[in-house]
Design brief:
Number of domains: 2
Radius of gyration: 21 Å
CATH superfamily of the largest domain: MFS general substrate transporter like domains
Oligomer: single chain
CATH topology of the largest domain: Growth Hormone, Chain: A
Order of helices and strands: HHHHHHHHHHHHHHHHHH
Helix content: over 70%
Structural class: mainly alpha
CATH class of the largest domain: Mainly Alpha
Number of strands: 0
Largest sheet: none
Number of helices: 18
Strand content: under 5%
Length: 440
């Protein structure tokens, strides 16, 4: 009975107090990731099922990433201009349509073009989803909200990856169609259950200045955070690109790699919620610095693994803990750095850092591994993590402990919603004092 009571209290402290609309968005995210069959198997589909070369599969993957990079900016602007809801609906319907079309596409040019469009619409959901969470969840609860959303992504993706191989035995077209159907179902959930959360009052009529896309890039503190994010994203990219190659060169089998890398998703599912409860009331800059070191040197220790699958598993566990600490904490910081009327643009530029890393990371990692060896590659990852940690600590010292305060005293943390649309989705109770997040 005591264990049951503690478990119930943990669930209440983790999930309680969040608005109903957040949970519908969470369900939409989970369903979407449960049906995310195509992306992990796209290269395998092109090479083993369609008979295209590995080089062509790499080109298609790059075009998919290019589409994601372009949509980061476009969707961010649209999220602020036309609203979160229409942008998210258009992105999901476009993803569903072109995913299905990709399953029927033939010819190298056609497949490449459609893959670009799938990447474009698939990534266009991110700025809108992040902006909606920032709109409807109070500042003190955002770490929890982003953590729960991240948990849903990994839970759904892990389960879908596990069953996608079985589904593929009945034909790859089934994967494409099921992915399209699940994404369309998410659009239905959004259409029925999520109202528009974009503030009605123009920025020019509030205390906030109007912010265009150029203003986002001129925001030096925010762009410093984006730069540090890019640095760590380049490191994280090695987990699915150079890590399996290096493990293969060391004599580790593909089966062992699958088990080792599968530990990443398993640990996220098991540890995300308890670690988030531990992180909530701690210094954000300290958490980001610690997470950067875990990520950087988790990959860095790979240089010592040799042919031991167990040691590789240990390194994966280390950088996974860093990932668990990093993602929700950073997303909460990005939300507070974003002026209310420019949240979409800010989230889009932030998302661009991950899209650029998907371009640059595999290429840079491959060159380092081939020309300088694994020691140089993994050592560079450790250096990147150390630089990022120092950067986050420096940003925290420059701006003090108050969350969302820029140099010069301009407060960008968002007060309680005052517009009709925002009020409709804001939670009624005030956040508990013990849930207040400390600043970066």
């Amino acid at each position: 009975m005591l264990v049951t009571a503690r478990f119930r209290r943990m669930i209440q402290e983790t999930a309680g107090g969040l608005p109903r609309q957040f949970w519908w968005l969470w369900v939409s995210t989970l369903v979407n990731r449960l049906g995310a069959f195509v992306v992990p198997f796209l290269s395998l589909y092109l090479t083993s099922n369609r008979g295209y070369s590995v080089t062509y599969a790499g080109v298609v993957a790059a075009l998919f990433g290019l589409g994601a990079a372009v949509s980061s900016i476009v969707a961010g602007v649209l999220t602020d201009r036309i609203g979160r809801r229409p942008t998210l609906l258009a992105a999901q319907l476009g993803t569903a349509l072109f995913t299905a079309v990709l399953g029927f596409s033939d010819g190298q040019v056609t497949i490449a073009v459609v893959a670009f469009l799938v990447g474009f619409f698939n990534n266009a959901t991110r700025p809108a989803v992040s902006a909606i969470i920032a709109d409807i969840v109070p500042s003190a609860d955002r770490v929890r909200a982003y953590s729960l959303n991240f948990w849903a992504i990994n839970l759904g993706f892990g389960l879908s990856s596990a069953v996608a191989g079985l589904i593929a035995t009945h034909g790859y077209l089934t994967l494409f169609l099921l992915d399209a159907v699940s994404t369309a179902l998410c659009a239905v959930v959004i259409f029925v259950r999520i109202p528009e959360t974009k503030p009605d009052t123009p920025a020019t009529k509030t205390d906030e200045p109007a912010v265009g896309l150029g203003g986002v890039f001129r925001d030096r503190r925010f762009m410093a955070v984006v730069g540090l994010t890019l640095l760590l994203a380049l490191v994280m990219q090695q987990g699915s690109t150079t890590l399996p190659v290096d493990m293969g060169l060391q004599g580790v089998t593909p089966t062992e790699y699958g088990l080792v890398i599968g530990l990443n998703g398993l640990l996220i599912v098991l540890l995300q919620i308890p670690l988030t409860r531990w992180v909530e009331n701690r210094s954000r800059s300290a958490m980001l610095a610690a997470a950067s070191l875990f990520i950087g040197w988790g990959f860095g220790m790979t240089a010592l693994a040799g042919s031991s699958a167990w040691f590789y598993a240990f390194t994966v566990a280390v950088w996974t803990i860093g990932e668990i600490l990093y993602t929700p904490t950073l997303m909460s910081l990005i939300a507070e750095l974003s002026p209310t009327h420019a949240r979409g643009r800010y989230q889009g530029v932030y998302s661009l850092s991950w899209s650029l890393a998907s371009f640059v990371g595999p290429a840079v990692g491959g060159v380092l591994l081939e020309r300088a060896g694994g020691g140089a590659l993994w050592g560079a990852c450790g250096v990147c993590g150390t630089v990022a940690a120092a950067g986050y600590l420096a940003l925290g010292k420059r701006t003090g402990a108050a969350p969302g305060v820029r140099p010069g005293g301009a407060v960008v943390a968002v007060p309680a919603p005052t517009t009709a649309a925002a009020t409709a989705v804001a939670p009624e109770p005030a956040p508990k004092p013990e849930q207040a997040a400390t600043g970066a």
